[in-house]
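Hi R.,

Here's the chain you asked about this morning:
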Amino acid sequence: MAADMTRHRRLADHVLAAWNSQDVERVLACYVEDLAYLDPNTRGPVRGREALRAYLTKLFSRWTMTWEPEELFPLDGVDGVAIRWAGTLAPAGQSRSVEISGLDLVILDGELVERNEVYFDRSPLASLLAPASVAPDVRSS
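And here is the predicted structure, written out as tokens:
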């Protein structure tokens, strides 16, 4: 069990470092060819490296993101792990950012990710999508 957690930690660090680089090919190298990827923005699973390449190209052109693993939870009966993480997101080229927390469910095939389901609350991102000059006034009267 300890050896699995050491391996899972090493793989989580490797995959998140690839995501933090925002290098599409480096991220794709962490996944099997017939991967399934799902996050709150995908409107269903993204299947295969070519589809993920298209999604990541668009995503990385619009957002600057960093991810840090906080806790790992091994999955029973399958080679995988749930990763609780913290992230910082900013629209590309902007200094305004938000911090979010979430959870990834990761199923492995050897040293590569076969399935990656990402869960987080998107509502904090709304403050980044509205122009700063029209932000609502939240002061009490």
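One quick note: Residues 42 and 73 are 24 Å apart (CA to CA).

Cheers,
M.
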